[in-house]
């Protein structure tokens, strides 16, 4: 699916999801320090998360490299090429994970979705997956989504 057709031109992209103990908002450079702290302390945990087992990320990066990555995700969001959300803990505050919604490389799917939470927020992973799955079904224009199931 060409990037230009990822979502219909008239589709209003959700800017926030608040549910249960967390909220999602578009990821951007303003989250750099907290985002970096969340994933850089959770390498093994993220690689054990469904959908991340074979990923080349996370990998060693500097804080400046992370900022560049967040800026790229923000440009993708603005250009409607892909949508990355930071996961915020509504009670404790702060970044505890991310959700990525991008075109699938597999023609069987409209979108590839992945998510992770920091090791310190591991108990939220299944709940995040369930909430995002429901959100995708109710609020997004995709019929076939590739999103690794949780046990």
Any overview of this molecule?
The chain has helices spanning 32-40, 43-47, 63-78, 125-139, and strands spanning 17-19, 22-26, 83-89, 95-103, 111-117, 145-147. It has 151 residues and is an alpha+beta fold. Strand 4 and strand 5 (111-117) form a beta hairpin. It is globular, with a radius of gyration of 15 Å.
Summarize it.
This protein has 151 residues and is of the alpha+beta class. Helix content is 30%, strand content 23%.
Average pLDDT figure? 94
Give the low-confidence spans: none
Taking the alpha carbons of the first and last residues, their distance comes to 30 Å
Strand content: 15-25%
How many E-type strands?
6
Count the DSSP helices: 4
Q: Label the structural class.
A: alpha+beta
Main sheet: strands, sense, barrel? 6 strands, mixed
Shape: globular
Radius of gyration, whole Å: 15 Å
Helix content: 25-40%
Major beta sheet, strand line-up:
1-2-3-4-5-6
Instruction: Spell out the helices and strands N to C.
Output: EEHHHEEEHE
